[in-house]
Structures are given as C-alpha cells and as structure tokens.
Amino acid sequence: MSTTAVLARGLTHARGSFRLGPVDVELPTGLVMGFVGHNGAGKTTTIRSLLGMLPTAPGQVRLFDELEPGSAQARARTGVVLDRPFLAPQWRVGGLGRRLGRFHRTWNQSTFERLQNRFGLDPAARCGTLSRGQGAKLALALALSHEPELLVLDEPTSGLDPLARQDVVDVLREFMVDERHSILFSTHITSDLDHLADLILVMDSGRLAYSGSLHGLGEEFAMVRGTGELTEEAGRHVHGLRRNPHGFEGLIRTEATPAFDSSVVIEAAGTDDVVIHLARNTSPRAEQKL
Amino acid sequence: MIATFAAFDTANFVVPLRKILPPALVVVLAAVVTPWPVTSVVAGAVVMTLLAPHHFADDERSDLDVLYSTLPVDRRTVVIGRYLSLLLVYLAVAALATLATVVVSGLEGSPVPVDVLVPAHLGSLIFFCVAVAVQLPFFFALGHARARPMIYVPVVVLSAGTWLLGQTSLFDGLDPRSVASLDPVPAWSAGAAGALALFVASAAVSVVLYRRRPL
User: Fold this and answer.
1) Most-buried pick from A36, A95, A212, B51 (CB within 10 A)?
2) Contacts of A36 (CB under 8 A, 6+ apart)
3) pLDDT per residue over B122-149, tens digit each?
4) Enclosing domain of residue A285
5) Domain stops at, among A197, A213, A229
6) Do A59 and A197 fall into the same domain?
7) Per residue in A220-253, pLDDT tens?
8) Are residues A111 and A10 in the same domain?
9) A177 neighbors A38 (Cβ within 8 angstroms)
10) Last residue of a domain, which of A156, A179, A213?
C-alpha cells in the first residue's frame, strides 16, 4: 500500500495572465482533502495538473508514491469526477459499463448497477438528456465502479439538491471505510467538508493560502469585527476588509491578534469566511464599502 | 490496450449508423450513377478524408478528450488507436466500394475492371494516407476547433497535385499508347508503401504533440 496518494512539490502552470503556484500538495493515503477557493483561484488547474491533463515537469507530481500523473497505472487506480460530464450525448447510461468497463481490469459491473439504482439513474436514458445533478451522480458511479484507491472530485456536488448532495456525501463516506482509499475533493459548498475532510487546501489567486487540517484552519485564521476605526498598523493585517454602517469586519491570521486593541471582537473563522475574505483581498488593505 | 481503444474508437465512428450511412450511400451512388463503377473507390477515399476531422469534432463536442485522459490508457495509446480506427474504417469503406463496383459491373453485364480496380485502390490509399497524415498531427496538437482549416487539406492536396502536374513537363511528349502498355501496379504499390510510411510517421509526430497538449 502506498503511503502518499498525491504528492506535488512546486507545482506551477501558466496560461494567459493566470499563474498557478508554486503549489505543494500532500495527501497521505487514507485521508480526505478538501480543496476550496473562489472561482478562478486555481483549483481546477491544480486538479488537472495532478491528473496529468496539464503538462508538469518530471517529478513535480507523484501519485501513489511513485507514479507519474497521466500514466496508465496511475489512472487505473484513480477515479475522476470533473465539473462537467465527459460522455457522448448519444450513449445510454446502461451501456456505459460495456463501453468503458473494458478499459479497467478491476471494473465491477454489479457496483455500477447498484450505484445506478441508488442514484435513481434510468439505464435507458441517454447521457445527453441527464440534468447536471444526474450527470454528476453518473460520473461518480463510473468513477467508483473500477474500484479506485484515489477519488479526485472537482465540484461534484454543485448543481445537486440537498438530498442528492447528502447521497453523494454518504457514498464518499462509505468509500472511505477502506483505509487504502483517499479523496481529493474540490467544492464551493464547504458544509460538505465539515464532516468529511481531514485536510483542507485554501487557494487564492493561484497560490495556497492555507494547507493543513480542517481543525487547524480555525486556529490559523480569525474574524475581526469592530465599530470604530482601524489603526494603520492593524489595517495592514486585515484581509478582505468590509465596511458597513455599523463598523467593519475582515479576516486576520491569528498571529496578528496582538495588533488589535480590546475595542474589536476577534472570533474563530469558518471555512467560508476564509474563502470569501481571501477572494475579496486583492491586497491586505483592500476594502469594500457596503 | 491499443486494440481495445481502436475497437472503442471505431465503434464511436460508426455508431449511431446515421453518421456512417450517408457517406456509405455516396460510395454506392458513385458506382451507380457514374459511367465507371470503379469511381466509388475514389469516392470512398475522398469521403473518408472528409469524415476524419468530424471524428475530432465529436470528441471536442462531448469532451471525450477528457474522458480519454481519465481512462487507464496513455496518450500514445489514444493516438495509435485513432490512426488504426481510421485505417479500419477506410478499409471497410474500400471493401464496400469494391463490392459496389463488382455488383454494378455485374448488373451492367460488363466484366469487373480488375486492371483499373487495383490501381484505383492503391491511388485512393495514397490520397487517404497523405491527406490524413498531414491533417491529424494538427488535430491532435490543437484540437478540432483550432485546427479547423486543416479540413481543407484533401482539396489542397488534390488541387496542388493537379496544378503541379500541369505546370511541369513531366507528361509532355508521352505517347498514351506506351503509357497504357506499362504495368501501373508496381509504381502505385511503391507509392502506397510510401504513403503508409508517411501515415506511420504522422502517428509518431502526433504522439509527441498530443502528449504536450493541455486538456
């Protein structure tokens, strides 16, 4: 059994004006890593690089301790669900096992059929007629049916109603019962991560803003709120400062707490607070009036 | 795994049948409506060079390039499988054209024109291999949308070839009777072997280019 499902060091990518990285990612086997950030932060680019869809320098990314991303061996052990389904519209749901299963030595047709039933997918339906939510469920069913060790999911729950989202999260939880399994899971719905993720990566403008345990995120960041004026020294530490008629609020790193006096309230930051305020933060002193 | 991918790709090429039936009909009609049934062989090659880019367009429309990059096959397998599937479908179309030629000749009560059929097949194979060998590296490197102008390669190859022949004095002063007495098969065979070599070289270039393409 490999000790590290995903290991990336100094991952970079440039496309147009967008620059990713350098990004370090380490997902030990047996853990779930949540991946959050605003649109355009670089989550999908990072995921595509880790999957070998975007070129990376040799040795920059290793899957299962030793495999290059994009190698047939790495893909055989990885299940992938991306933000858009990648199936021909004329294909029927029920025929996908016959069509795609032949590529996988470990394909389990009964798992595919069980998941089809569980997700309420009509085997006679054509892929092109499925809703976004049904497409995501079908992609998840396909990704799980070849019994992968690593699941890489790019916003699998977006577009799903709460019940369907719960179904997906339940399936992911069942997948994680096996200690050899790992998940890298990008999402905008951070509540999905609350009871699932062990680790979290927060991306902002192509760079990692935080990488560590989900619990540690609350220790690394805090929300500061106040009614008065911020001193220049204190303002330097505030990310995504928002002003409203009653005062201000913003995100700070907890190490900056001594810069604030007792007139402000400092409390634990949630995952959403971190994502929202980092996204608003073009520079630590940028502010938004409401 | 190359054979598995080639079979998968060939199935995508011909199913649903409405994709392949109109081109097949063109091949059969060429045998029926033209004075020379063997025209269907040439029609088959032309139709195939026009169909090949559509296969890439279908990939792009359905994000199948992304699917290929999640299956346990490397990019080399995808490229070689695609070249093989195109060659397989071409051979099927050529077989259909041969059948149409034989049937129509039989219905007309004339003998099967074997002396023309063999050179027609070899010439068509050359045309198909050259056109596809030039087109495919661009489609693999850039995708269908960005490499769309390459669709016109077969027309350019035909026009340029005809124009060059017209501009050169290669055939000036040739006695048609002496040309007719020559056995064209060895020359066409050598040409076909060269075209197949170009086809293989094109696949090698496409492997390198497709490996570098961001998906």
Assistant:
1) A36
2) A43, A186, A187, A188, A190, A193, A200, A201, A202, A203, A271, A274, A275
3) 989 999 999 999 999 999 999 999 988 8
4) 217-289
5) A213
6) yes
7) 889 999 887 778 888 888 888 888 888 888 999 9
8) yes
9) no
10) A213
- Most B CBs within 10 Å, among A48, A67, A75, to test the B interface: A75
Residues A99 and A229 reside in one and the same domain: no
A75 touching B (Cβ < 8 Å): yes
pTM: 0.85
Which residue in this structure is represented by tokens 């696949």? Answer: B203
Task: Quote the CA–CA distance of B59 and A116 in Å, as a whole number.
Answer: 25
Backbone angles phi, psi at B49, to 5 degrees: -70, -25
Q: Find the chain B residues whose C-beta atoms sit closer than 8 A to any C-beta of A.
A: 1, 4-5, 8, 11-12, 16, 58, 62-64, 66-67, 69-75, 77, 211-212, 214-215
The domain total for chain A is: 2
Q: Decide if pLDDT at A159 tops 80.
A: no
Q: How many CB atoms lie within 10 A of CB B8?
A: 19
ipTM of the complex: 0.84
For helices B39-61 and B75-108, what crossing angle results, to 10°? 150
DSSP letter string, A32-70 = EEEEEE-TTSSHHHHHHHHTTSS---TTSEEETTTBPTT
- Residue at B7: amino acid letter: A
CA dist A121 and A110 (Å) reads 14
Instruction: State whether A159 and A100 are in the same domain.
Output: yes
Written as one string, the DSSP assignment of B113-172 is -HHHHHHHHHHHHHHHHHHHHHHHHHHHHH-TTTTGGGGGHHHHHHHHHHHHHHHS-TTT
Nearest residue, CB atoms, B63 vs list A73, A80, A84: A84
The answer to whether B63 touches A86, Cβ cutoff 8 Å, is yes
What chain A residue is nearest to B71 in terms of C-alpha separation?
Answer: A75
* Higher pLDDT, residue B51 or B175: B51
Considering the domain architecture, whether residues A146 and A90 belong to the same structural domain is answered as: yes
